[in-house]
Amino acid sequence: MEFHTQELEDVVIVGAGIAGLATAVALKRVGVRSVVLERSDELRTTGAALSLFPNAWIALEALGVAQKLTDMYRPFKRGYVTNLVNGSVQEMSFNSVLDEWNANGARTVHRKALLETLAGELPSDAIHYSTKLSFIETRTQGDSSMSILHVEDGSIIKAKVLIGCDGIHSPVASWLGLSEPVHSGRFAVRGLAVMPQGHGLNNEVHQFLHNGSRAGVTHLTDTEAYWFITYPSTFSDEEEMRAGDPKMLQRKVLEKLANFPPMLLEYVQQSDLTTLSWAPLMLRLPWDLLFKNLSKGNVTVAGDALHPMTPDLGQGGCSALEDAVILARHIGTYYLKHKNIVPIEMTEAVKLYVKERRWRAMALITGSYLSGRVQQGGSKWMMNFIRDKLFYRFLLRRMADFINFDCGKLPCVNPSKEVDDEHNKIE
């Protein structure tokens, strides 16, 4: 289905990433039809994998898809962090830190599998590919507002609610007045190792620290392992890595891992080159969330458009799933009163969502950045003491308690018929 001039939609979501698809699924479960605008011509499944912690699995349970993924991936049992400079090894038991809080524990999943699972919950015409937003305007009537979306192909879409899930450099976030994210000073390379004879990781996470760099590997399937390296940035790295040639990326990673254990180099050597990705690690300044607008009328943002953060607590995807459930819960609560989207009530729903997410997003951004600074803060004796004696033994457990957040359930019973009926009316 193509858009025509002056199409009217209840909810328009910009971006078909984790946040956008999860929000669309959550809205569907409360009976609200939405459309997703995606600038690419297909799902953007680039990126190897991501770790999902208990807070993400609670959100996925609310979305009704957790079981489809937990059947495919095994949870972590334990993790080891080795400081290669002084030889210290810290052991972390995921059973005690995370599984006691939620039975699904922590697991690494293919990013592609997560996106396809979410997309599979939506009607076939819910995602509009090759649809790029040009600009946004709003029209206010009384206390309610309507968003007018201008698309590059000349179409105009009216939206009672507009949700920007359009990534780190979000046009919707810019329209709200949020500043561009800033560079953390580090880069990351990630990939999948394919080992037909097995990787021997035994459901464990292994991380290694060396002079400001951190690298790690964990199981994904019986024959696939997910690895990463994060390292301080240099101008020459940025110039070379931006070219994106997979063989060059692999070679550069092997150079950076010269002082790391041979086992880690083997995983990089066995990589599927199509899964390699390089990216600068960006974050939104926490005070930007405190002092600037996270919504205007019926417009707001979610996922990386709201809270880009470094990956040091593994909360980028997890918090995006939280956003989706909480935003849909507030929209659904008002929707279920009238079985209709009432613009003035949607403004209040968006405000409640922002109120609930602002402080948690700020805390996750700050905690992730500080976690990265401590873990990759060099090898001086004071930093080693803070990292080995305080951070891994005490502070990380407190951070785990914080990230274990229950986003709650959705106010729905069986919305599929309502959504289908509404869709038939539109047709």
From TrEMBL:
<comment type="similarity">
    <text>Belongs to the 3-hydroxybenzoate 6-hydroxylase family.</text>
</comment>
<keyword id="KW-0560">Oxidoreductase</keyword>
<feature type="domain" description="FAD-binding">
    <location>
        <begin position="10"/>
        <end position="335"/>
    </location>
</feature>
<dbReference type="GO" id="GO:0004497">
    <property type="term" value="F:monooxygenase activity"/>
</dbReference>
<dbReference type="InterPro" id="IPR036188">
    <property type="entry name" value="FAD/NAD-bd_sf"/>
</dbReference>
<dbReference type="GO" id="GO:0071949">
    <property type="term" value="F:FAD binding"/>
</dbReference>
<dbReference type="InterPro" id="IPR002938">
    <property type="entry name" value="FAD-bd"/>
</dbReference>
<dbReference type="InterPro" id="IPR044560">
    <property type="entry name" value="MOase"/>
</dbReference>
<keyword id="KW-0503">Monooxygenase</keyword>
<dbReference type="Pfam" id="PF01494">
    <property type="entry name" value="FAD_binding_3"/>
</dbReference>
<protein>
    <recommendedName>
        <fullName>FAD-binding domain-containing protein</fullName>
    </recommendedName>
</protein>
